[in-house]
Each structure stands twice: as structure tokens, then as C-alpha cells.
Amino acid sequence: MNRNHLSFIFTLLSLLLVGSAITACASPPTSASTTASSPAQATPTSTVTPAALLTAVDWRNFTYTSSCYSDKPRQFVVRNGEGVVDGIHLQVYKPVYGDLTGDGQPAAAIPYSCSAADFAGVSVFVYTGNANKPVLMADLSLMSPGSNNGGTVDIVTINHGIIQLIGKGYTPTAPHCCPDLRIKTSYRWNGSRFVVVSSDVSKL
Predict the structure, then answer these.
(1) pTM for the model
(2) How high is the pLDDT of residue 150?
(3) What is the DSSP string of 100-130?
């Protein structure tokens, strides 16, 4: 092999080595495959706001149903403590609260009076439920034994599931102007209605 042939072979090998080096530099480096984890999706939490208690009701601005001075119930739209329907006035007083059903929630006892040509005395609305949906449980009053005249409630208390009404009433011969009895009546809710658990009557 002469010198020219050796020079040609050496030149060819040099070109091949340079080309390989260029190709290696041009190729992007191989990297490990990584998977980007998507951010965790927050699970929405359902928050149920409990209904407000009956203590949140504005009883001085409320619509009541009563049959006072009537043989059928009528609605009284009370504003600032008083409502009027056909000349009949319904006035409400300060409410009293306490658990009467054993559910741990306060019932509301709202004393009220009706008056037209005369004064019909004070009775008590009793509501259960919540501020969004008050439900009338009963319309309680003091009944005078042996008399058609209803009594009038002066004091309402709720303790240990008992609602007690204290007020004045009439003997059969007493005029409507002049109650002559002191009446104290206690009621308990039996699951469907209020029943009398004790009653005390004495002379004024």
C-alpha cells in the first residue's frame, strides 16, 4: 500500500469520527419520563345551616290565627303588637320560651288578648317548630269552673316540660267586670295535645 492510499484512508477515518461527534452533540439528551401530578381536586363540603330558633321570630309583627269573638278562625296581621279584623282587636304580649316536647328546642308561649265591645281576657298561643316555620300547637286559656266567663292569664311559666298559667277567673255568680278566683293550671304535652296535670282554684 503506497503512501497516497494511507493518507486517503486516514483522511476518511478522520471525517467519520468528526461526523459522529457532531451527531452526538446535536441529539437532545435523553431524560427520564416524568408525569406531572394534577393538583388534588377539593371536594366541596355541604354545609347545612340549622334553622333559627323560635326566639328569632318577631312576634309583635306576625300573622296569628284566632277565633276570638267568632265561630271560625280568622287571620290577624299583627303589627307593632296589635292587629284588627272587623273591629276586633288582638294584642300580643311578651313571649315566654321553654322546651315542651322534649326535643331540646324552645317552644314559644305568646300571651294575647282580644277585645271588642268588652275585654275577653288573656289567653296563650303556643308554638313549636322553628323561625322559618312556626307551628301552632294550642291556644290555651284559663277556664273558670262552673262559669261561662273565661279567665285571664297574668303569668306564664315553662319548666321541665310543663307550661303553667296563673291568673284570675270567676265563680258562677261573679259579674264579668269582677273576677273573684285565683286560678293556677298546669299543662303537659302528651304528643298530640296538651293535657291538664294540675289545677288549683282559690278565692281572691
Answers:
(1) 0.75
(2) 77
(3) SSSSSS-EEEEEEEEESSSEEEEEEEEEEEE
